[in-house]
Every structure is written in C-alpha cells, then in structure tokens.
C-alpha cells in the first residue's frame, strides 16, 4: 500500500484536493485535526503536555485549555518547539495505527494531509509527496475570504513561518496546481490512476 503525503501552504487548497481524493475512495488522514483530537484524548500526550506546560493546560473538567496553551507555546520559539516535539510523535504513532487499519481494509494507497509535512519529519513515513501549489496573492485572498477574523498581516505572518512554496514544489514528486486557472479534477484523477496501478 502506497503512503502519499499531501502538503501546501495556508490557502493552497490542500483540503479541497483531499476531498476530491476521498470522493474517489482514497482514505485521507488529516494530521491537523488528529493532532487537536489527540491533545485532548491521548493519555500519554495529555500527561506529557501537563508535565511540560503545567496543570493549567487542562481545565477543571479535564478539557484542553487551548487559549492557555497557545499563549504559552507561542510565546517563544523554544516553547513552540517543545510543544511540537510532543505532538508530532503522537501524531506519527496515531498515523501508523490508522495506516495499518487501512491496509487491512485492502486500500491500494492512502493520503496523509499535513501543513508541516517536511518540518515535522512526517515525510519520512511516506512513499511520495504531493504539493498543492497556488501563488501567494491567490492564497492570501482565499484565507482572507475564508477567515474574516484574520488580517493581511496575520496571513503574511503565517506564510512567513511556513516553508516556501518553491521549496515544497522542488521536494515533491507530484504538484497539483490550484491557481484558479488549471482544473483540479483532471489533475487529481491522473494521480489517482497512477497511485491505483
């Protein structure tokens, strides 16, 4: 079973590309969604987060206090690195269990969607990588439409912290162009057929 990674910067359209693959029957692991779930539900990770960031990480009802954790973890790069060093391995373990279950179901390939596929080292678990590419002005406009609470400065700050699109394109084996000019469906169909054979 082939393990395919799919990445791209904020606003590139990773999610819509993943939905197209899902329509074709491909299982997709959403790393960001699973990371959020694991932080609240995985016992080992909960213990590690509490040890690293203190008892206020979880409120009196046992729920993750995301506001507190964000305030602490994003205060400086060392704290963010500490958080990532706990969360990324937990996501890696969870992905392995999920991938094994998909193999048992007989799938020919699966996708792992992650914004930080290279930065987290997750690409090492995968056979091939797809980068979803869109020019920065298109990405900025999409994020501002999608997230009206964000300012252009917010979006530029996020883009500035991510690996450049050019580097992601160079490192990937496949590129899906989501630039509002080229059709997505034919590109996804071509990849689906390649991965299925």
From TrEMBL:
This is Dephospho-CoA kinase. It is an enzyme of class 2 (transferase). The keyword Kinase applies. It is found in: Cytoplasm. Belongs to the CoaE family. Pathway: Cofactor biosynthesis; coenzyme A biosynthesis; CoA from (R)-pantothenate: step 5/5. Coiled coil: none annotated. It catalyses: 3'-dephospho-CoA + ATP = ADP + CoA + H(+). GO terms for molecular function: dephospho-CoA kinase activity. Catalyzes the phosphorylation of the 3'-hydroxyl group of dephosphocoenzyme A to form coenzyme A. The keyword ATP-binding applies. Its EC number is 2.7.1.24. InterPro entries: Depp_CoAkinase, P-loop_NTPase. It comes from Hymenobacter volaticus. The gene is coaE. Keywords: ATP-binding, Coenzyme A biosynthesis, Cytoplasm, Kinase, Nucleotide-binding, Transferase. ATP binds at residues 11-16.
């Amino acid at each position: 079973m082939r393990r395919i990674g799919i990445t791209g910067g904020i606003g590139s359209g990773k999610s819509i590309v993943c939905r197209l693959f899902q329509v074709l029957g491909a299982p997709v692991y959403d790393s960001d969604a699973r990371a959020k779930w694991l932080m609240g539900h995985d016992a080992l990770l909960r213990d590690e987060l509490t040890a690293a960031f203190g008892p206020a990480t979880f409120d009196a009802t046992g729920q993750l206090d995301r506001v507190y954790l964000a305030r602490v973890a994003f205060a400086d790069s060392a704290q963010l690195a500490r958080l990532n060093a706990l969360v990324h391995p937990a996501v890696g373990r969870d992905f392995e269990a999920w991938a094994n279950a998909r193999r048992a179901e007989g799938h020919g390939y699966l996708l792992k969607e992650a914004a930080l596929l290279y930065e987290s080292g997750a690409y090492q678990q995968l056979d091939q990588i797809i980068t979803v590419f869109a020019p920065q002005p298109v990405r900025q406009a999409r994020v501002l439409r999608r997230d009206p609470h964000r300012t252009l400065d917010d979006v530029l700050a996020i883009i500035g912290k991510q690996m450049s699109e050019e580097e992601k394109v160079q490192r990937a084996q496949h590129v899906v162009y989501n630039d509002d000019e080229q059709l997505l469906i034919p590109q996804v169909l071509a990849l689906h057929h390649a991965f299925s054979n």
